[in-house]
Task: inverse folding
């Protein structure tokens, strides 16, 4: 449609918003065509310079009024609001204090061909030694089938037609809900906590799957401002489930002090498309802070390191037997510890260490954790939850930083399915 045919108030900004299909509704200054925000974008800001807001670069402000703007910026107001909440504890889920010695970055382009080949071979040997094969299991659930398919016999994978993006999204949701159902976690009286909730689609489908259950609640954690498109489905009357949103970074979330969570007897933590760093902090958030105790007793120092995380996850996982065969000389040269030595470490990891701090004597309310990973390479050594394991097999912080970048090769679109 022609832009000139769109209605516009004579006093409004003449900048056309393509996505919203309308003109900007802010008023420009006398004699100007654009409001101050868009005047900067169009290079017509006049003598006074406008710069991006340091708190949120999506908008700008006058450079000579920067201090004044920061005080009244919406980001400042939001920060003050959640910093005063009972469940805010700065850096509680970060895990490790930032290293005083800056980690030396190793660029892939600076490595020689032999060095790169050696690093890749080292990763392949370590992977074959310590990582078990991951079975690909795809589930479905009736809550998605009923919503999408025209008949009960219709195949869910063929019900989307040419809408590839929608098909991928809903198949993922169906499989994740199916995983929860397989583990018997879709029952009465559960509090589902979705980390990095975004629009809240995962919680939406979990609620659909538990529609016949009673006394379920949902806590949606998200640090960004998003369109709460799915929330409208749960604001209507007659819904047994209670949806509550919390705007906070996972790094600073003391989950045990969140209203609706601290008194819950069954808590299930879920997440979809969490990056590597958010996954690490999400695991700490679920296993460290989900205890019935005052917020003052929990801090980042108490919950630092990976030992307690491994101890907490021991309650949710079963011990796996480790083989005791000796490793080849090549592996010892590349990785340092032998497989026999690593077996002892694995046993120690899966056994609750006596030195781990006991935060609460009461029964853990955590019933399960389900996180679908995304952008796994987006993580840092400081926040990584498996530092102890990496150090044991000879991976230094510098090696780890390089690994995070090499790992993105696994999702390269140019590789074949077999590779």
Result:
């Amino acid at each position: 449609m022609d832009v000139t045919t769109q209605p516009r108030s004579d006093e409004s900004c003449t900048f056309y918003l393509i996505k919203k299909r309308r003109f900007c509704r802010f008023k420009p200054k006398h004699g100007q065509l654009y409001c101050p925000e868009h005047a900067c974008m169009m290079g017509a800001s006049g003598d006074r310079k406008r710069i991006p807001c340091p708190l949120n670069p999506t908008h700008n402000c006058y450079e000579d009024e920067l201090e004044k703007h920061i005080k009244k910026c919406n980001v400042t107001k939001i920060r003050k609001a959640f910093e005063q909440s009972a469940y805010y504890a700065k850096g509680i889920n970060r895990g490790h204090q930032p290293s005083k010695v800056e980690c030396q970055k190793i660029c892939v382009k600076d490595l020689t061909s032999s060095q790169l080949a050696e690093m890749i071979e080292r990763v392949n040997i370590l992977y074959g030694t310590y990582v078990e094969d991951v079975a690909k299991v795809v589930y479905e659930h009736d809550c998605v089938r009923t919503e999408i398919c025209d008949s009960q016999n219709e195949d869910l994978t063929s019900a989307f037609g040419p809408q590839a993006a929608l098909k991928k999204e809903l198949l993922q949701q169906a499989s994740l809900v199916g995983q929860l159902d397989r583990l018997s976690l879709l029952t009465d009286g559960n509090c589902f906590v979705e980390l990095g909730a975004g629009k809240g689609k995962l919680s939406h489908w979990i609620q659909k799957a538990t529609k016949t259950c009673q006394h379920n609640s949902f806590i949606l954690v998200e640090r960004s401002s998003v369109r709460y498109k799915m929330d409208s489905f749960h604001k209507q009357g007659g819904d047994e489930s209670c949806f509550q949103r919390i705007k906070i970074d996972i790094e600073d979330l003391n989950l045990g002090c969140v209203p609706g969570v601290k008194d819950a007897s069954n808590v299930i933590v879920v997440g979809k498309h969490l990056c590597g760093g958010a996954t690490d902090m999400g695991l700490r958030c679920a296993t460290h802070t989900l205890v019935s105790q005052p917020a003052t007793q929990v801090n980042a120092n108490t919950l630092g390191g990976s030992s307690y995380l491994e101890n907490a996850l021991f309650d949710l996982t079963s011990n796996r037997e480790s083989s005791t065969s000796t490793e080849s000389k090549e592996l010892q040269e590349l990785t340092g510890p032998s497989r026999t030595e690593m077996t002892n470490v694995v046993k120690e990891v899966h056994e609750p260490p006596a030195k781990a701090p006991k935060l609460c004597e009461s029964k853990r309310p955590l019933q399960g954790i389900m996180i679908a990973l995304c952008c796994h390479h987006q993580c840092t050594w400081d926040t990584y939850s498996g530092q102890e394991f990496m150090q044991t097999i000879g991976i230094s912080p510098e090696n780890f930083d390089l690994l995070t970048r090499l790992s993105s090769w696994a999702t390269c679109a140019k590789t074949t399915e077999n590779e």
Q: What stands out?
A: Confidence is low (pLDDT under 50) at residues 1-5, 292-308, 310-362. The longest strand covers residues 267-274. The two ends are 47 Å apart (CA to CA).
